[in-house]
Amino acid sequence: MTTQPEHQAPATPRPATLHELRTAFSRYGLPGDRDLFEQALAAALDASPIGDLAAVTEVIATYRHRLTLRTGERAMASLAAPIGGQQRTPATEAFARLRVTGGNW
Fold it and tell me: Which residue has the higher pLDDT, 73 or 92?
């Protein structure tokens, strides 16, 4: 018998370019994350003196770090973990209601 590979999604790669970061926010970010990033990036770019893009680099690094924290292995494991030691699904909720009401909705 052969060992079957685990069917887990690979960890989200860390974005290396601005395009990859924008794509990752569109795919994995919370609603509004990409817009907030674009606004912060534009503000930093507009306020930066020509030839000194340190503020832009800081905005990119900050938002990239936020995305990494949200899509890291520990974050994904915590999202998948049961709450209070019990796995809650729509089916378990329905069966719990049936037990409480004695089968009457």
Answer: 73
